[in-house]
Amino acid sequence: MALAPNTPAPATGLTTTAAPFIEEARAHREIYIHQPYELYSDDNQATWGRLIGRMQDRWGRYGNRRYLEGLDKLQLSPARIPHLEDINRFLQPLTGFCARAVTGYVPSYLFLDCLRRREFPTTVTIRDSAHLEYLPEPDIFHDVAGHVPMHTDPAFAEALVRFGACAAAAARRVAATADQHEKLRRLTSNIRAMSRFFWFSVEFGLMRASPGARDGDLKVYGSGLLSSFGEISHAIEAPEVERRPFEIERVVNQPFEIDHYQPLLFIVDSFDHLFALVGELEAWLVAGKLDDVAGGEPEVKEADLASFLAAKHD
Q1: Does 245 sit behind a cis peptide bond, omega within 30 degrees of 0 on the bond before it?
Q2: For residue 122, which of 92, 142, 101, 103 has the smallest C-alpha distance?
Q3: The domain at 20-309 falls in which architecture?
């Protein structure tokens, strides 16, 4: 059942991993919720301000031009956590995208199908003020300040929609596979491949600063980097980071770990290039070329498999 908009919570505050409102929603198996803005504590609001304030110089130095343009359009205030309704009122006329509040983890197919429908699952909690850099799961700063400015760009938005279409193609293909063991084997490999593609592009992608720019002239467009005070500079400047051109075969077979700075990152030329790469990913999927990718991280959860097996095709 859905929680009523004014449902009281046992305690105030929407701190990641410590929000009673979210725990209650999860107990009722809710994924999509409203943003209970009245529950943000003074500490939550102050944390948002600190996060925004300390990133300004780093965004200006390392952020992709389209991201910076999106920031300028959104005018995120350090004074208060944004209302998702306000963001959507501004964002939807630009690209059709909207931020859709969720309780946290969204199974793979549901997440990607949201992208196909121009909805971005957005966490409403915010990290603990004592741990500004590391957080065990996404929060509203990562989702809104890291992702949403990119959604103001039409070319990037179309790449996300096309990525969502890949999930629909995978669901249709696996539904046509009769043998149950083979169905699960293929689907596990397909989900792992799509997760790696998303990780090394949308979350941790690098882009040439301009068409034809040298490999050393790079900017960040990945939201995991754009929401990390430490890793955004590390991604561009650290000599130990390996930065390679984005190649489908290498990316879908490349495991990743989430609990440390990334030692390997991939470069695209532009958002048009990213869009073309997503189309190539879908072609590989349909042709069966993603059925046997290398094992390893990320783990494919039972809920991810179940979300694809239960998918309705339109």
Answers
A1: no
A2: 101
A3: Orthogonal Bundle (1.10)
Beta bridge mates, 265: 243
Helix (H, G, I), strand (E, B) or coil at 66: helix
For residue range 7-61, list pLDDT tens digits in order.
444 446 999 989 999 999 999 999 999 999 999 999 999 999 999 999 999 999 9
Q: Where are the beta strands (DSSP E) in the chain?
A: 98-102, 119-123, 206-208, 218-220, 242-245, 264-268
The residue assigned the tokens 């991939």 is 266
Q: How many CB atoms lie within 10 A of CB 79?
A: 9
Please give the radius of gyration of the chain, using alpha carbons only, rounded to the nearest integer. 19
Q: Which residues are catalytic?
A: 142, 147, 203, 227
Domains of the chain by residue range: 20-309
Cβ count within 10 A of residue 35: 21
Supply angle C-alpha 45, 50, 51, rounded to 5: 95
Indicate yes or no: pTM above 0.85: yes
> Can you tell me which residue has the tokens 């249709």?
172
Give the C-alpha separation, 83 to 189, whole Å: 38
225-255 burial, b if ≥16 CB within 10 A, otherwise e?
bbbbeebbebbbeeeebeeeebebeebbbbe
Give the tens place of pLDDT for each residue, 78-110: 999 999 999 999 999 999 999 999 999 999 999
What sign results for the dihedral spanned by CA atoms 104, 110, 111, 115?
negative
